């Protein structure tokens, strides 16, 4: 998710779940081929397994970018064919690529020829008023013929004109049965469903029909939902970190990142040195649904406290919730 799932966010999520696959923000081929590669591809070893999501429509450029991702150590390359924003459309990639399945197939083949790691595709079920199941079935079939084995299906249409990206996540109706039908029609493929999924019960229901579930905004706004994932879906019975332990686990990382990048203008951080808020903004939902959640968010968003740059603010914010939870 653009501007959300950066390396700090992923490092935080990894403190909650050890096995869940994490995905980067969409990175354009232009940013990698003509920009600061380190800024876009730098990540923490603890993030594995982690996938690099690319945006682009030129097979040669995508192949070069995928190779960079493999060289930097990513576990998967994911091609975005689902983003509906006009900015992305102007670059001729994202959801508008669904209108050109053969081009997507050429892109996938070029990337598969360039790397040894998996190449996957994330897409919608249709674009604008084209909403027949046959459209997405034929799209998946064409890309599968190019060797793609994994499809992440955001089970709603993308409206390319007239709706904002936010509205595109809410207004077009969800049609999970399209993803279910894809699995029935292509049993050899890995079909992962995405879109509007918020609870463990919903996840369980989808997993009876498809191979996997991708959680987006709910994982960001209510990240502790993922605390159940390792035992429930990966058979890992290791102890789950409490919310306080998650925060404590983040402290060494924050100290390290501020020491490395806090005073070095432009080094791996846009707009200058790293600020505490660049990391803490991803933690605001940790107490979602708990007593004191609002106090936690307010404390962690206090401009004066953030300006002081002291990572101890995390534990101060948590401590302030405890009288409210008692």
What proportion of the residues form beta strands (DSSP E)? Answer: 5-15%
Instruction: Report the strand count.
Output: 7
Mean pLDDT: 92
Main beta-sheet strand count, sense and barrel state: 7 strands, parallel
Strand-helix topology:
Layout: H1 7-16, E1 22-28, H2 29-34, H3 37-41, E2 50-55, H4 59-72, E3 76-81, H5 86-90, H6 101-114, E4 118-124, H7 133-145, E5 150-154, H8 165-168, H9 176-185, E6 190-194, H10 200-207, E7 212-214, H11 217-221, H12 229-234, H13 243-261, H14 277-280, H15 293-300, H16 303-308, H17 313-319, H18 322-325
Parallel strand pairs: 1-2, 2-3, 3-4, 4-5, 5-6, 6-7
Helix pairs in contact: 1-13, 4-6, 6-7, 7-9, 15-17
């Amino acid at each position: 998710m653009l501007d959300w799932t950066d390396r700090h966010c992923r490092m935080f999520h990894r403190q909650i779940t050890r096995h869940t696959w994490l995905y980067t923000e969409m990175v354009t081929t232009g940013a990698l081929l003509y920009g600061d590669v380190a800024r876009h591809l730098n990540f923490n070893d603890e993030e594995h397994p982690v996938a690099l999501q690319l945006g682009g429509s030129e097979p040669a450029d995508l192949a070069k970018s995928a190779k960079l991702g493999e060289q930097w150590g990513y576990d998967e390359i994911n091609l975005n064919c689902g983003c509906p924003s006009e900015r992305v459309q102007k670059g001729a990639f994202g959801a508008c690529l669904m209108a050109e399945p053969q081009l997507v197939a050429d892109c996938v083949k070029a990337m598969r020829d360039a790397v040894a790691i998996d190449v996957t595709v994330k897409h919608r079920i249709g674009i604008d008023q084209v909403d027949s199941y046959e459209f997405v079935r034929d799209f998946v079939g064409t890309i599968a013929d190019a060797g793609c084995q994994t499809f992440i299906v955001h089970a709603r249409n993308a409206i390319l004109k007239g709706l904002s990206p936010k509205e595109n996540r809410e207004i077009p109706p969800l049609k999970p049965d399209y993803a279910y039908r894809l699995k029935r029609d292509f049993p050899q493929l890995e079909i992962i469903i995405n879109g509007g999924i918020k609870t463990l019960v919903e996840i369980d229901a989808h997993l009876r029909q498809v191979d996997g579930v991708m959680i987006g905004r709910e994982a960001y706004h209510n990240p502790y939902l993922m605390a159940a994932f390792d035992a429930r879906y990966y058979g890992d019975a290791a102890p789950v970190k409490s919310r306080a332990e998650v925060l404590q686990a983040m402290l060494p990382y924050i100290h390290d990142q501020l020491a490395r990048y806090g005073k070095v203008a432009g080094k791996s951080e846009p707009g200058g040195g790293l600020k505490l808020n660049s990391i803490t903004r991803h933690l605001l939902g940790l107490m979602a649904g708990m007593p004191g959640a609002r106090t936690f968010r307010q404390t962690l968003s206090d401009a004066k406290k953030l300006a002081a740059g002291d990572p101890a603010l995390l534990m101060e914010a948590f401590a302030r919730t405890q009288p409210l939870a008692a």
